[in-house]
Amino acid sequence: MPALSDTQNERDDRQLPIDRVGVRSLRFPLSIRDRDAAVQHTVATVSLAVDLPHHFKGTHMSRFVEVLHAHGKELTVSNIVAMPKELMKKLHADKAHVEMKFPYFRSKKAPVSGAEGLLDYGVIFEVNADKEKTDFVLTVEVPVTTLCPCSKAISARGAHNQRGTVTLAVRFSDPIWIEDLLELVESSASSELYSILKRPDEKHVTEAAYDNPVFVEDLVRNVAVKAKAHPRITWFRVEAENYESIHNHNAWAMIEGGAAPSAK
User: Fold this and answer.
1) Would you call 13 helix, strand, or coil by DSSP?
2) Are 137 and 170 in contact (CB under 8 A)?
3) pTM for the model
4) In this model, does residue 64 exceed pLDDT 90?
């Protein structure tokens, strides 16, 4: 059989390196150990990329998938962290990027009735590496309720509230549980969310939110204060977006703080 041409390795003369090239929107099984020492099985949407020097025409896309499948039928946190270095070696690259985004479920009991149900959150593992260091960022996407302090102050009856999403990204000195970050965010809002609420629970949640009004600005500040005080968090970025109930727009705020990433 005649040798097949390797077009990707042909020379490119445009003198333009590519910062990231690879594959995205792959779905792959993922196994995560939760704070209760149980193992949660979920499915991650995966992005894999490397840099490409200016003189190469293309990269070898199949090698990204080969690295992913080399870890068997299910990924874990430990082999996700190691994957950028494997990509660099496999594709002869100087930098590599791995991102895993997946749904994460918690069993939560309603505050009064104790009715139990699963609530889903978004979690992202992002790992970037070069020849000197590996940088890991953990991000959680947390749904919450906020009640408007201004609406409460000026209204004779009630106050408008809305559901929102808080996105908290962190770097850390020692391992941190996903649940710790979820609780940090939920305790900063007017109320946390539940999947099952009976009438006594609905009354409790409504009144709790009314007693704890927060602007979107309050929400990110509340999270930032707790992130700064956390002994393991070395850097954070918190964003909050409220899906406004009386406006045709969303309210948004962001705070970033902490030290720059260090080599690991």
Assistant:
1) coil
2) yes
3) 0.90
4) yes
